[in-house]
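Session log. Operator J.P. requested a structure for one protein chain; no other inputs attached. Running the standard single-chain path with token output.
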Amino acid sequence: MTEAELRRFLATQGLASRKTAFRKLKGGYSNKVWRVDAPDRCLVAKEFVEPMTGTLFPNLPEDEAKALSRLAGLDVAPDVLGFWPESSLLVYNYVEGEMWDGDMEGVAQLLLRKEVADPEGFRTVPIDPGEIIAEGDALFARCKSPPEVNPPPVVKVTPPDRLSLIHTDIGVNLVGEGVNLRLIDWQCPAIGDLCEDIYSFLSPAFQILGERAPLTDTQIQDFWQALARPDLAKRYDLLRPAYAWRFAGYCAWRVELLKDSEICARYHRALGEELSYMRQPA
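Structure written below.
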């Protein structure tokens, strides 16, 4: 939609008027996102591109709307106001605050709050290390010139006691701090292992792709201390090489697929950091 088309559409829903201001938001690699400022409130309008296939991060507007509804009242995500599938348009309350900037305890507590949400009804993702590594193998197989690296060994990991509603792409998709911290951009949620969400935050590649430096050892220690879940820390150490292998394959594939030289360079750096992360001892 153009700005004029979006204004007219939101006006019919009682969400915009002549005094409403529209501004495109920077961020993300696909959807068109607008900040919508009315005299009495601030909204976000997200117009989705076509759903993607063959990627770790499908673009699923219906699932984002469902996830935001499922998370209502948990102080985890923005409050959804409306979803119009025929227009692939989602509107939710704008989250006030700065982009996340190092509040490790806030992220840990947000993840624990999120555990209350019912994960049923979302797509499933692998939780077994062998299946996760196989997804990485398939991504590397798409590359014409993959790096000469070997996958990590498959280890046996007991399935989690319960599955979670996971975001899958946390990185720096966080706004605010402390109890007001919120997780945004829920277009690829899933039912899976909470450790996958932890990985998508702690991973150096996810931070790099969010145009930030990888987390320091001290920050990571602060996160685990705040989470206070040694059981998850132990699982994470076992699963981390498999997650890192898969995401390294994703980065290698994206390096060859994308045309933007700046973004390609970012993915290339992320690839190298992720392979190092994969080999890092527990």
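Operator note: The longest helix spans residues 230-257.
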